[in-house]
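## Example pair
The file below holds two records. Each record gives the amino-acid sequence first, followed by its structure token line.
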Amino acid sequence: MNLREAEEGKEYTIQQINTDDEELNAFLFSLGCYSGETITVIAHRKGGCTVSIKDGRYNIDTQLAEAIIV
């Protein structure tokens, strides 16, 4: 399941990130978003969702949320 399908407030473990963009992968890694890391969906928004990774909160768009498999 991807982040768009995830329940709000529930903690998940990232299984993989489906993107071929190396720059995007490097950016996500710098945020702490990589396979094996825990992620929590705080809220689903119209244009994406708000997630918590480690000690930070981030807004990600729908396309990226669909690429993150939990």
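Second record, same layout:
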Amino acid sequence: MPRINITPKTILIQIMVFIVLLAVVEGVFRFMEDSFKKPFVALNLILHPYPYMMFGSRPGDGFTWLNVFTKENVPSKIVFNNYGFAERYDYTMIPDAEYLKKHGKKAGEKIVLITGGSVVHGVGATDNERTIAGRLQHHLNRNSKGGSRYRVVNVGMGSWIAYQQFIGLSLFGLPLDPDWIVVMDGHNDAAVPCAHGGGATNPLGWPKFLNLTQGTGTTSNRILRALTRHSALVRVIAGQAGSKEASNAPGVVVDESDPDPRFRIKMAGLTFKEQDTQLGFYLQAQRNVMALFSHSSVILSSQPVMGDNVISPYYRKAFSPEGTAQDSEELRKALDRYMADHCRDSCKSTISGQLLGYFMGRSALELRELAKAEQAADASRNIFYINTECSIPGENNARMRFFVDNAHLSDAGQDRVGELFAEIILSLESRKKFDFAAFMDRHRP
């Protein structure tokens, strides 16, 4: 066998060739990187140093949404404050006299607090005045017959479940002595426990948070997991020297069969039954809102989505102006059957449509009954339930212009929901029954 003469010069040349190859590969991917990026519809969430909130949106402005139906980018001038809420002034957790003098209720003013997830937060809106909160304030002040002026304060946050909304209201809204509380939600409480793998009662990303604090660097990325298992260099760089198998936090698993890599790290043993556990937690959050703001009137509502309910066609029927008790009973039966048949199904992102359909249907029925019971128990204030799903045309071609994706609203959708809430408030303050059918008649496509 001929002897290979390896000289320092040869080694140096090989190293230089390797570096050049790396530089070429890096250059190619830098050129291609933008083609992999999409304008984000969900907000960039950041962990807050305040465990009560868990996370929020980044402060600042300059967002771009994606309308998935028209494939168009939607530039937005929306501004988020120091805690990431869609308001032009900063909030504080310790409101002193100076803060309340500046931002508290003024003479002749009524304050409305509105909360929810990313839909209320403002995803899809082109500026603050075109969010649901902005449009609600516009329609209240335009149509009010009294002497009061209305100010609507946005306490909605992307990806928050209902209990986080309750905490946000208590921190930032209670000192303002609001006249009205408007709650619109359901989507996040439907998605986080099972589809996202968080487990009932936990906020978005909880399994990953547990792994960061109690695990040894487990990742859902299959390539990184393989490198960690087989490369000492990678383990040393990652701070996992001596541990060939990264360990999960107690009760956390990595489900590599889930096609969505965002949700492969999840709580162990989750099944469809998780939705009913979450429902109880969700309803408790709504009760806590009404108890905390015991002198305020309250609107509880279910948020709209573009697609029809995959569990039962009776969902929209049951909550439409023409809805009957029989429609509600048919919806309830369909939900009961679905849970009986699927309660043991493993949680995965692939069944997100069924999880959403079940939770929205069940929570809407329960919220409506909760509002009725609370109103009967306390006649000193208004407590009202509305399903905003039915305020938007049901036929797909007419409905599409109100959405930028299945969950989030366009400017037109934000305006429609804001006007709906405004009319409810003004009707109830005038001691009139809100006429949902008349509202829809004025907005026939």
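Notes on the second record: Residues 38-42 have pLDDT under 50 and may be disordered. The two ends are 85 Å apart (CA to CA).
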